Amino acid sequence: MKKIYGILMLAMLAVCSVAFVSCGDDDDDNPLIGTWEREESVNVGNPYEDHGTDRWIFNSSGSGSHYRKVMGWNDSFSYTIIAVHNNSGVVRISYNYGSYDMTFSVMGKTLAFDGNTYTKK
């Protein structure tokens, strides 16, 4: 009887150790969350060139903002990830004036997005 009790206790211990393992943070599912920046230069008329920061901020709530110093604007947006696999996918960016589907790929602290490369800040 003691042997059966011991086996049952070991089985219960094994079940409990698996049952109480925590899952990761939900933010791990969305590789876009964070602030991404790149320096850009735009030819604003020969021979003039303007330099500045192009910044995308993706919040975990599905909102964000896009700031471009060179163009002199800052715009808010909402976003939905349409498809993601291995930190690559398609995201739908929705501004007040329209929506755009863009592909992205995240590798470490580098984001390839909208034809440009950004660094996580």
Notes on the protein architecture:
There is one protein chain. A hairpin with a 2-residue loop joins strand 1 and strand 2. 15% of the residues lie in helices and 57% in strands. The longest helix has 18 residues. It is mainly beta and 121 residues long. An 8-stranded antiparallel barrel has the order 1-2-3-4-5-6-7-8. The protein has 1 helix and 8 strands. The protein has a single domain, classed as Lipocalin, CATH 2.40.128.
Keywords:
single chain, 121 residues, mainly beta, Lipocalin, 8-stranded antiparallel β-barrel, 1 helix, elongated
In short:
The chain has about 120 residues and is mainly beta.
Runs with pLDDT <50, length 5+? 18-27
What is the overall pLDDT average? 79
Return the structural class. Answer: mainly beta
Distance between the termini: 62 Å
The radius of gyration over CA amounts to: 23 Å
Blueprint of the fold:
Layout: H1 2-19, E1 34-45, E2 48-58, E3 63-68, E4 73-85, E5 88-95, E6 98-107, E7 110-113, E8 116-120
Antiparallel strand pairs: 1-2, 1-8, 2-3, 3-4, 4-5, 5-6, 6-7, 7-8
